[in-house]
Each structure stands twice: as C-alpha cells, then as structure tokens.
Amino acid sequence: MKLILENIGMLKKAEITLNQLVVIAGENDNGKSTVGKVIFCLVKAINRYKEDLQESQEHKIKEKAQEFYFVLRRAMIDFDDKIDSLYDELRHSINTNKTYENQAIYKNIIEVLKLNKEIDQGTLAQLEQISSDIDRIANEPEDLKTSIENALKKVFASEFDSDLLYIGTQNGSIKLFENDTKLLDINIDKNNKITLKSEVEPIELKDATFIESPLILNNHDLLVRSQSALALKKQTTRSIGIPFTTLHTKDLFDKLQEPSLSALFNNDLDKNHALEIDKIINGEILYDPKARDFVFKRDKNQISIKNTASGSKVFGILQLLFRNDFINKNTIIIFDEPENHLHPNWQLKLAKILVDFSKEGVYIMVSSHSPYMIEALQRFSDTAEIKSKTCFYLAENNSIEDRNRLADIFRVLSEPFEIFRQMDKVELGFE
After folding, report:
1. What are phi and psi of 161, to 5 degrees?
2. 261 near 281, Cβ under 8 Å?
3. Distance CA 201, CA 181 (A)
4. pLDDT tens digits, one per residue of 367-405
5. Phi and psi dihedrals of 297, rounded to 5?
6. CA torsion 4→8→13→14, rounded to 10°?
7. DSSP structure string for 333-382
8. What are phi and psi of 199, to 5 degrees?
9. How far is Cα 238 from Cα 216, in angstroms, rounded to an integer?
C-alpha cells in the first residue's frame, strides 16, 4: 500500500510505501510522528469502527436500548410479574450485547404497559418513541461510508485536535492506494472538516497499536479513569474531573491490561519471542488485578513498576502486547522514537525483536533519530532476508519522498559528530 499526504500535521508532502518494515528518520519537527498517527487513525476508522469507535447499527441500537431501560426503570413501581420478567430480559440483553437480536422486546413491554392503568401516559409516549427509533435504525441500510467518515472524524480529532492541517494551509488530503486501486481518499478543509471523496475499499491491516512512551505504565491510576475524545468532549471531561487523553494512549493502556478475545486461541507467531524478551530484562512485566497496577516480576520477587527502569518498560510493553495477543499477522506496531529510553546495546536488541516480528507478518513502523537503532534495523533486516520488504525514509524540510534514503539518513544523523571534529581541530590548534 502507498500512503500519500498533503498538508497534514507536520508534513507538507509525503509519500510512503507501507512495507513490512518502515523506518522514518530525521530531525525533530519534520513530521516523523505524523505518518504513524495517520496510519493509526486510518486503521482504526476502517477496520475497528464498530469495536473501538462505536459507529454501527448495533451500537446505535444499544444506546437506544439503554435509554429505553432507564426510562422504564424510573417508571416501575408496582407492575405485575409479566412486566418484571420482560424488564429482566431487557436488562440481560443489554448486558450481553444482544439488543440488536432482541428487538421485539420493546413492543412487548409497551403492549403490557398499555394494560396497566397506572402507567403515566407521558412515559408511555416516551417509550413508544424510543421503540420507533430502534425500528427506524434497524431498518435503515447501514451506510458504510458514513460510518467510516464519522469514525475518521473521531480519531483525527482525538489524535490531532484542531491541528490536522499543516500550519498556514487551507486544505489537505490523505490518500491510500494498492497499486492502481484507490482504497481511500480524504479531503480536509480549512475548518478541519473531513470528507470522504469516494467509497472505502478494505485494507489488509486489521488493527494498529501506537507506542509513544514506556512511562504509560507509571500512570495506571490516571489512565484507568481517563476518556479519549471518542467518549466525551474535552470540555465535558474537564468539567466533571475526568482525565482526557489521546485515543492511541487509551488504546494501548487497555491492551496492556486485558487480553484480547483471540488470546484464548493459539497465536500464529513464534512463542519464543516472549522468552527472548524475558531474557533481555531478566524478568517480566505483568498486570496485577489485585494490586490494580503493573508490576515487574523477577524470580519470586515482585517490584513496583514505578521502581523499574524505563528500558525494561519498553520491552515489557511488547511482552504484554504479545501475551495479550495484540501482536499478530496483518496488525501494525507503530513505535515512536523507542531509543529515547534505551541504552545503545538494548536498542540493538529491540531492533532484532522488531525485525523478527516483521519477518512473521507483523507490520512494523519505527520513527527514530538514533544511528544505533537505524543501523541495527538495517543490518538485522538484511540478515533476516526481508530487505525487499524494508524501506528507510528521511523526513526532511517537512517532506518525505518515496525512496530509500539510508545514506542520506546517516549523513544527517552524523552531523553532530562533524561538529565534534571541528571542535577537536580548534582545540588541537589546526584552525
């Protein structure tokens, strides 16, 4: 797949081929992180709009069912056993996500209520209106384009706030291609309004995980209460004291806490990845439900995550994602400058693990300004024989060209060493 961006985030122009392993290097404020955030948003909106973004008929019906339930509960005083039984059935269907399949229950409840002379007519009319809304939603053909467009608006608002457009520009675009097939075409106007210009084609990537900082593990008490822009408006969250965070932060936090449903089945990837990480940090990072926090476990000893080295947390995040079954074929892991918390030796070890994942079908995207990390990714990808599925991009002058620029990357990243050489010349009296 090829991603083309124009006037998005920190990028004026970018073309990226989404190979199995993508590395984006460059100095700060040139748009390295923008690409990863855009990919995260696109995957979530296209393939997770029902599960993660609450854009589907099922979700809309569930919202109405909950509204019906609360109106009915407020009205219930001395109703007969039949309405009590239907009330319990409604509550069960909501708790088990069966509201879509059990639509007849609303009419049944209303018919029984009509026989009760004590029912308030205003309440009855309210319930009839909600039941009518449920019928209307259920009978509407689901508009995939509208659902995904709404999901796109949510994810981009969460990740970019009101700064989706490159500063000073009036419009932008995001396009995704598979050879000559256009998969996605988005236009963004000066008011940050997102419009889908065509139908959306399916994409291979099934889920995305964006890893920004290992310090996420330190903030359990804050993040467990937090909401992203998908749940509530920022003004609302602040006014009622709920912490506000980005979608990618909340998404990662939830994945670290709870295994996916598919974790009940066998993961296709090599189980030795987890053991390899265990050896690197000489232990493992776990979520302890009793302590309601993350902990580092070594032998029989358990250490608070807050007293654990940041480098260990980087590997611990991968441990948790792998064991909870969120690292799979056709998912993408987006790592934003992982070297910030790693000794150069551990940068090499992380690069090896990421290349191993990539070889097994996991898509990996790394933004970096570390020559150690970049060279390690290059050498290990060559050794793993995935060179043809790897590309090294350079974010420069707020643009990214669709070509391998490994030599240019090392030139840019070696500039500080040239400054040191010039300083040495001055100190030695050569200049």
Report:
1. 55, -125
2. no
3. 9
4. 999 999 999 999 999 999 999 999 999 999 999 999 999
5. -115, 125
6. -40
7. EEEE-GGGG--HHHHHHHHHHHHHHHHTT-EEEEEE--HHHHHHHHHHHH
8. -65, 155
9. 20
